[in-house]
């Protein structure tokens, strides 16, 4: 089923954090409505490259965020990540460690908040008088801030540049 222009723009903006999401979505829908829908990844990458103003110093391809957004939406990755963390904490033995490496801010935010919730920090908005988020002190967060790759590691493995490691340890019941 075809996704509406607004829904597509929201997916690209929310999951890809792409500022040109409206323009990209409009161009995609215009091609679809003209009877020449995009059928290959190369066509989509080219369309996004033409739609997005890029900084010549930027190391990433302009279509990276769009492809990320579509992948996350299609695979329901953020919902699955949230459930994975919760299930993993349930399955850990006392003093067991859960370590998660994320590669973009959306994933990292989910891991950070899930760890905080499992460490007993309420995630409810301040205006709600009683906690309804289910925060319970089940883990100790081992990484106050995420562990980032060193410059040496980034030189050896350029893909590691956006990696962030967070870890927690399960407490006794």
| Portion of residues within helices | 40-55%
Name the beta content range.
5-15%
Strand order of the largest sheet: 1-3-2
Largest sheet features: 3 strands, antiparallel
Rg: 20 Å
| Spans of at least 5 consecutive residues with low confidence | none
Task: Report the structural category.
Answer: mainly alpha
What global shape is seen?
A: globular
Give a description of the structure:
With 173 residues, this protein is mainly alpha-helical. It contains seven helices and three strands; from the N terminus they run αααααβαβαβ. A three-stranded antiparallel β-sheet has the order 1-3-2, with helices on one face. Helix 1 packs across helix 4. The protein starts with a helix and ends with a strand. The relative contact order is 0.12.
């Amino acid at each position: 089923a075809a996704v509406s222009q607004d829904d597509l723009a929201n997916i690209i903006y929310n999951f890809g954090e792409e500022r040109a999401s409206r323009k990209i979505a409009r161009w995609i829908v215009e091609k679809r409505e003209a009877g020449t829908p995009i059928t290959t990844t190369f066509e989509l990458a080219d369309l996004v490259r033409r739609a997005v103003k890029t900084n010549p110093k930027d190391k990433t391809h302009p279509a990276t965020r769009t492809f990320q957004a579509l992948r996350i939406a299609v695979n329901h990755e953020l919902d699955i990540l949230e459930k994975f963390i919760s299930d993993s904490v349930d399955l850990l033995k006392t003093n067991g460690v859960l370590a998660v490496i994320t590669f973009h801010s959306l994933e990292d935010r989910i891991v950070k908040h899930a760890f905080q919730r499992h460490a007993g920090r309420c995630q409810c908005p301040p205006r709600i008088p009683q906690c309804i988020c289910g925060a319970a002190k089940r883990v100790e967060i081992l990484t106050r801030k995420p562990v980032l790759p060193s410059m040496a590691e980034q030189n050896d493995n350029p893909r590691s540049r956006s990696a962030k490691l967070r870890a927690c340890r399960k407490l006794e019941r």
